Amino acid sequence: MLKNNRLIADAARARGAVVPLLDVCHALYGETLRSGHAGADMAAVVHALRARTRAGRRPPTGPDEVSGRAAAVRPPGRAG
User: Fold this and answer.
1) What is the pTM assigned to this prediction?
2) For residue range 22-72, what is the model confidence (pLDDT) as tens digits?
3) Is residue 62 part of a domain?
4) At residue 18, does pLDDT exceed 80?
5) How many structural domains does the chain have?
6) Interatomic CA distance for residues 27 and 63, integer angstroms
């Protein structure tokens, strides 16, 4: 799921789309993978959400917090 998410986000960006929800999903999928749930389906992100809650962490709020690459991508027609 992590690889597919990144492929979709990259393809969307190549066409000028802004995809902040895919960036947040990518972060959650990565946390899920690192927490030992690589073999589980997408519903396993609940483990990442529970870990964030226990740690008192808030979710990332934008591409700058989720992906350094995404921070450089701007919507078409907007100055950055």
Assistant:
1) 0.57
2) 888 888 888 888 888 877 777 788 888 888 888 887 666 555 555 544 444
3) yes
4) yes
5) 1
6) 10
Rounded to 5 degrees, φ, ψ at 34 are -65, -25
CB 5 within 8 A of CB 26: yes
What is the identity of the amino acid at 64?
D
Alpha helices in the chain (DSSP H): 2-14, 20-34, 45-55, 63-66, 68-71
Question: Is 77 contained in some domain?
Answer: no
State the residue for tokens 């008192």.
56
User: Residue 16: is its pLDDT beyond 90?
Assistant: yes
Structure tokens, 39: 């073999």
CB 21 within 8 A of CB 62: no
